[in-house]
Amino acid sequence: MNIQIIKILKMKQPNMRLGVHLLVSAIVFGIYSSGSTAALLCTGDPASITINVGNINVLKDVPINSPITPEIVGANGGFDCTKGTGRSGIGIKSYLSDTGKKNISSASLFASNVTGISMVIGVSGSIGLKWIGDHIGSIGGADWRLVSYSAVSENWSLQLQSRIQLYKTGDFSSGTLSGKIGAYMSSNGSYPTVWGPEIPIYITGTITKIACSLTNTSISVPLGDVSATQFTGITTTAGDKTFNLGLSCDKDANINVALAGSQNADTADTSVLALTNAGQSGTAKGVGVQLLYGSVPLKLNNNILLKTSAGGQETLPFSARYYQTQTTIGAGLANSSATLNITYQ
After folding, report:
1. What CA–CA distance (Å, rounded) separates 76 from 204?
2. Domain boundary at 210, 225, 259, which?
3. How far is it, in rounded angstroms, from Cα 169 to Cα 182?
4. Residues 44, 46, 50, 52, Cα dihedral to 10°
5. CB distance 202 to 181 below 8 Å
6. Angle, alpha carbons 55-56-59 (nearest 5°)
7. pTM of the predicted protein model
8. What is the pLDDT of residue 84?
9. Both 304 and 262 in a single domain?
10. CB proximity list for 281: less than 8 A, separation 6 or greater
11. Could you give the CA distance from residue 287 to residue 82 in angstroms, rounded to a whole number?
12. Considering 185, 210, 235, which residue would you say is the last residue of a domain?
């Protein structure tokens, strides 16, 4: 008889209201150059965009230079422009500091306002998805990248879409992502000789450092064969088996646990779990399963504080046992599964 304990590492998120502010009023800029270069007059829309990344939980021991999010897509933006001199193009630029590091695709990593958290900044247009730093030359610099072009000396209207991905690039703490990270931008000339207007790109969201990491994420607890004669009536228990849950935690991390699973239908006690395939042929009858911390049964969906970590390796003692739910017990398989949601503050 086995109990499969599956633990999901889950960070309790701070009570924070996040918002996306999208300004949609149009703004017209005039960019003029001296000499023989003609004027480039463009209108950008929207006036700005904000990329809301939400709350990002990051394990404290994630390797340096590892991505901590998938690619996150920003809102579309674009420009309507009158003809200038030579080809015109649009793309994206960064307003963040270059860390001097690159990801495996040669995109530059730019430092966010949260220490130890950086990002790559890209844009998709008529020539596909490109990242700042993946090309240095006529269509890209250290902090900018073009992706869409017009024909020579014509009025044009082009659209593009931003993309970012966040990385852990050093020691970090929890924090709030904010500020201007870049801008959609327009240019006149195959190698930009005249820069047109910009559509600023802002970021909002939070980085939450998960203070603990689990040694194992799945534990099987064998209770062995238990005779029905070991039970003496409803609410009696048998087959106690202890097991430990290992954690590595930062100092002063408050470790909490909540049990998730299916309640046994034969009892109102919310600490008794149903058996796998309950009610089917070959499954034991009249018993359920309890999980305990110390000697106290864990109740379903009830979050409790286990301890405050002194820092380093922590070993949490749990146990599992069978619990009689009916007057008569029927022999059969008595497996169960549950989730221990471990949260940290």
Report:
1. 17
2. 210
3. 19
4. -130
5. yes
6. 140
7. 0.64
8. 60
9. yes
10. none
11. 78
12. 210
Whole-angstrom distance, CA of residue 185 vs CA of residue 90: 6
The two counts, helices (H) then strands (E), for the chain are: 0, 25
**Cα gap 112→68, rounded to integer Å:** 13
Q: Which of 265, 264, 268, 247 is nearest to 256 (CA)?
A: 247
Both tokens assigned to 119: 């990002």
Amino acid identity, position 191: Y
Do 193 and 340 share a domain, yes or no?
Answer: no
Q: Extract the tokens encoding 38.
A: 């003609």
- 79 within domain boundaries: yes
> How many Å apart are CA 118 and CA 63, to the nearest integer?
14
The rounded average pLDDT for each run of 10 residues, N- to C-terminus, in the chain (345 residues) is 37 33 27 37 89 93 93 92 69 95 95 98 90 84 84 73 97 96 82 75 95 86 92 96 92 92 96 95 96 95 94 94 96 94 84
Predicted pLDDT at 194:
66
Q: Is 247 buried (19+), middle (13-18) or exposed (0-12) by CB count in 10 A?
A: buried
For 147, list phi and psi in degrees, rounded to 5: -140, -10
Longest pairwise C-alpha distance within the chain: 101
